[in-house]
Automatic annotation (TrEMBL):
Source organism per UniProt: Thalassoglobus neptunius
Name this protein carries in UniProt: Choline-sulfatase
Pfam annotation, one family: Sulfatase
Region spans: Disordered: 18-38
Gene3D superfamilies recorded: Alkaline Phosphatase, subunit A
Length: 562
């Protein structure tokens, strides 16, 4: 039987199958218009590819488990390589997603034009640990119990869900050389997850000496703090962890590899503190900064638990940001945009190295963030929520066959997908045996079809045991552990200001319709939920979490961490 790999190689025989280095360039001071329309190259070629891929990609791929497969003539051909770029705390403020009008992400935008941009992609946990645990294990938080941050590297002790079962480990078991650099895992040693690891020096730094902060000082509160601050620091790009990670990845792409490789590159920015050298701030003058939309009375129609679970006493809020005519708000937005611009350039360095390497025509590229981020919306500068800004993530998949014309219009898919889908997607694209433990769905059919019959109606995100959000193409439904709901219609309320399940709903007829919709979507909430994982941190972010973690046995009656 013909497999997807054979279709890929057949396609490469046509002109235009090679990506171009020229698309990945240094950021300019002018935002990219990523939605401009350009003529496609060879409609016949793309129609042929889509038709053949659709016929042969629906069954899960099976194939040889070594590093080479054979075509119909018995000629050996290499398995594709994988370049996975994971960005920390990047929301939808990238040009191709139009999340902010002033952003500058020419390299990410160029990559989106080469592949498929998933406009409705969401994380499974709106903080680093649960999201990465889900993506790398292919399991939902309610299966593993990783609802909150895991401590140290304790996930390695879990042989049922994690040890030896993470995505790069699965590739290593099936003939791949696995390489990683920067922040990829959370609660699991990168040295264990990868055969070769390039390190992650300085963590989220570098930071000023003596604990100095530039703009945000932590308020007094008994709950866990944050590194949140913003400012121009340090002096040079070479001092930044992401520069070094990109350089290490480039070295790997310039080296010889006897096996197909799985290379994961973890970029730290724009994770807090929002520190990058001054030159990146200069791209975004304060007088030109556009502030995000927000609504001061946004939380008046929320259930009590919806307010309490989302409180963040240590984090910046609108009162602080808006003081002195939005002084800190403008600086914060400027810094976040500067960090995005900086990390886009580091991504561009890696992509250019790939394009000029011998691996350009046989490497699958995936770019994603681990979760979204609020920049003032919902009265916060943080993740830690079940709302759109926290769960919504960039997700781009580019096959080596997707390159046709640099002027080609962006290919996008609007169906609800999750980071949990990456594990089975990459397994299928690389012709590896299906991993039966994966709880996500392969995105391969969606790479070539905007609509796929039988695709899920909603994607799930979980924040603390018993609290979940569902995102469809049109709505978001949140259900809390006490049974209360929030419901938002994104066709008329993309900012999620009007909770259709809350006190602001006055029409009885409308309430009945919304209740029926909520009841229908509720079938997609999990019916069973694992206890908290033994690795769960005992540091609560607010009073509700302290009560919740005590009730679930995470924090003992007398908390030794306090």
């Amino acid at each position: 039987m013909i497999e997807i790999q054979q279709v890929v190689h057949m396609f490469l025989a046509f002109p235009g199958g090679r990506r171009s280095e020229s698309d990945f360039s240094r950021p300019t001071s002018r935002p990219i218009d990523s939605q401009s329309t350009h003529p496609r190259s060879s409609l016949i070629k793309w129609t042929f590819l889509a038709a053949v891929i659709f016929l042969f990609s629906l069954p899960q791929m099976s194939g040889a488990q070594d590093e080479q497969q054979s075509n119909d003539d018995g000629e050996a051909r290499p398995k594709p390589n994988v370049l996975l770029i994971m960005v920390d705390d990047l929301n939808d403020w990238i040009g191709c997603m139009r999340g902010h009008p002033g952003t500058q992400t020419p390299n990410i935008d160029a990559l989106s034009r080469e592949g498929v941009l998933f406009m409705n992609a969401h994380c499974q946990g709106p903080i680093c640990g649960p999201s990465r645990a889900s993506l790398l294990s292919g399991l939902y938080p309610h299966t593993t119990g990783v609802y909150q941050q895991p401590t140290k590297n304790n996930l390695e002790k879990d042989e049922e869900h994690f040890r030896g079962k993470l995505l790069p480990e699965y590739f290593a078991q099936h003939g791949y050389e696995t390489l990683g650099v920067g922040k990829i895992t959370h609660g699991y040693s990168e040295d264990v997850a990868f055969q070769k690891y390039g390190g992650w020096k300085d963590g989220f730094g570098p930071k000023p000496e003596g604990g100095k902060r530039f703009n945000y000082e932590l308020p007094s509160s008994p709950y866990s703090g944050t590194q949140t601050d913003w400012g121009a620091f340090p002096e040079r790009d070479e001092q930044m962890p992401d520069f070094r990670s990109a350089s290490w990845a480039i070295e790997q792409l310039e080296s010889d590899h006897e096996k197909p490789f799985f290379l994961a590159v973890g970029m730290v920015r724009p994770h807090v503190p929002f520190y990058v050298p001054e030159k990146w701030f200069e791209q975004f003058p304060l007088e030109n900064i556009v502030l995000p939309k927000f609504y001061r009375e946004d939380q008046n129609d929320l259930p009590e638990l919806g307010i309490r679970i989302h409180e963040l006493p240590k984090y910046p809020n609108l009162e602080f940001l808006q003081a002195n005519d939005d002084e800190q708000y403008r600086k914060c937005v400027q810094a976040y945009l500067a960090c995005i611009n900086f990390v886009d350039f580091q991504i561009g360095r890696v992509l250019r190295a790939l394009m000029t390497s011998e691996f350009a025509d046989n490497t699958i590229i995936v770019l994603c963030s681990d979760h979204g981020y609020h920049i003032g919306e919902k009265d916060r500068v943080s993740k830690h929520s079940l709302w759109e800004e926290s769960t919504h993530v960039p997700l781009i998949i580019s096959l080596p066959v997707h390159r046709s014309d640099p002027r080609e219009i962006i290919r996008r898919n609007d169906l609800p997908v999750g980071l949990i889908d990456l594990y089975p997607t990459l397994v299928q694209l690389c012709g590896l045996p299906e991993n039966p433990s994966n709880e996500g769905e392969s995105l391969v059919p969606l790479l070539f079809h905007p609509q796929v019959e039988g695709w899920r109606e909603a994607i799930l995100t979980t924040y603390a045991k018993g609290n979940h959000a569902l995102r469809t193409q049109t709505h978001r439904l949140i259900r809390y552990e006490d049974g209360r709901f929030e419901l938002y219609d994104h066709t008329s309320d993309p900012e999620e200001w009007n909770n259709l399940a809350g006190p602001a709903q006055t029409s009885r007829a409308a309430m009945e319709v919304n209740f029926e919709l909520a009841q229908h979507l509720s079938q997609y909430f999990p019916t069973t939920e694992a206890d908290y994982h033994p690795s769960t941190s005992r540091s609560p972010v607010n009073a509700w979490f302290e009560e919740h973690l005590k009730a679930n046995g995470v924090i003992p009656a007398k908390n030794p961490d306090k």
